[in-house]
Write a structure and sequence with these properties.
This protein has 362 residues and is α/β, with parallel strands linked by helices. Helix content is 36%, strand content 14%. It is built from 12 helices and 13 strands. Strand 3, helix 5 and strand 4 form a beta-alpha-beta unit.
């Protein structure tokens, strides 16, 4: 139950006001804090903190001391944006399937953007559908009429191209480091250090990271370089064995796993995403390998289904709410004619669950 989290009074009040805004209970302005305090059964100080939180999320607009807050979605109706999401891969009609944290789905994004007065859709083709091919992406994008783009998990070449276009774009996850494009990314450095350190303490030396092709194309990405550096820091020589090459398809992924567990099987696996994590678990079970007795396994992302595991799967976790907060602020700035570039980092933590243990034979 590592992902279970209880809301404070401030967060409960903020959640109540969000829901009432979505229902259209109020028009143009919301009630004053004293009235809301009575309505919610809390003190005015708690309400004020909750309303300031909603201001930071872009849902409310302050009008000065003693004046009621305006509802951003209604105040900005004339500047509403039509936003298109281009996802890494589509596993379902409303799911963002790349680095999908336990709290994130397209429905969450769309709902929050609608509250802020904007509309959104998912592009008919994902980056995977377009083969991560820049020419195909460019041709497809230029056929879409919209006001802004959100790219989920984009490779560096694609994000560089979007950063040069007239239509504003924001990168969520992906390889956007040091690019002139608004972005929100996960900082996994501390989580990576802690996880590698823990595995080394448990006697592991043969540690492998399975990352998507675009995370290795044109050289390892930031987190992949961090992984290799951490192994070296613990005296473990690194090479292609630790970051193996495979194509971005099911057959190649399972072929990579088969090769790894041929002659010199790893004792620990880091895996980028929950779908790949579950696929690896099934592969290992078919080989008669038990987790964590024979091999330890850590997922680099959270997943809502980990809470159904007993014990919880070892993984990296983070608070996903700043992702859509960043998007709302960015969209509101674009609607106001301010195409500002802002980068947000969300810190991840290592959750040591039941899928890691001592190295075999220790």
């Amino acid at each position: 139950m590592a992902l279970l989290r209880f809301l404070s009074k401030i967060e409960q009040v903020a959640a109540y006001v969000r829901d009432e805004l979505a229902r259209g209970k109020w028009h143009y302005e919301i009630p004053g804090r004293e009235d809301l305090a009575i309505e919610c059964g809390v003190n005015a100080k708690t309400v004020e903190s909750a309303l300031r939180l909603l201001e930071r999320e872009g849902l409310l607009l302050a009008q000065g001391a003693g004046r009621r807050r305006r509802i951003a979605a209604q105040a900005q109706a004339k500047g509403a944006l039509k936003i298109t999401f281009m996802v890494y891969e589509q596993l379902g009609p409303v799911q963002i399937s790349y680095n999908d944290p336990a709290q994130i789905s397209y429905n969450d994004f769309s709902h929050q953007l609608t509250r802020a007065g904007h509309s959104s859709t998912i592009a008919g083709k994902s980056l995977t559908d377009l083969g991560m091919d820049l020419r195909r992406v460019a041709k497809y994008v230029k056929g879409i009429k919209n006001d802004a783009w959100v790219i989920i998990g984009g490779p560096r070449e694609v994000l560089e191209w979007f950063s040069r276009q007239a239509v504003p774009a924001c990168a969520v996850f992906g390889r956007s480091s040091q690019l002139p494009i608004s972005s929100v990314r996960i900082d996994k450095k501390a989580a990576m250090q802690r996880a590698v350190e823990r595995l080394v303490q448990l006697g592991h030396r043969r540690i492998v990271l399975l990352a998507r092709t675009d995370r290795r194309k044109s050289g390892p990405g930031l987190h992949e370089r961090m992984f290799l550096a951490e192994l070296e820091a613990h005296g473990i020589p690194t090479g292609p064995y630790n970051l193996p090459d495979w194509d971005n398809d099911v057959e190649s992924y399972h072929g990579c796993l088969a090769a790894l567990f041929g002659k010199t099987p790893p004792t620990a696996l880091f895996i980028d995403e929950p779908p790949l994590f579950y696929a690896a678990l099934l592969f290992l079970s078919r080989r008669g390998l038990c987790v964590p007795r024979d091999v330890s396994i850590v997922c680099h992302d959270p997943d809502r289904w980990f809470t159904w595991c007993d014990p919880v799967a070892s993984h990296f976790n983070w608070d996903a709410r700043p992702v859509w907060t960043h998007l709302i602020r960015w969209a509101n700035q674009i609607a106001a004619g301010k195409d500002l570039i802002k980068h947000s980092l969300i810190n991840a933590e290592f959750i040591e669950g039941g899928t890691i243990g001592p190295a075999p034979g220790r």
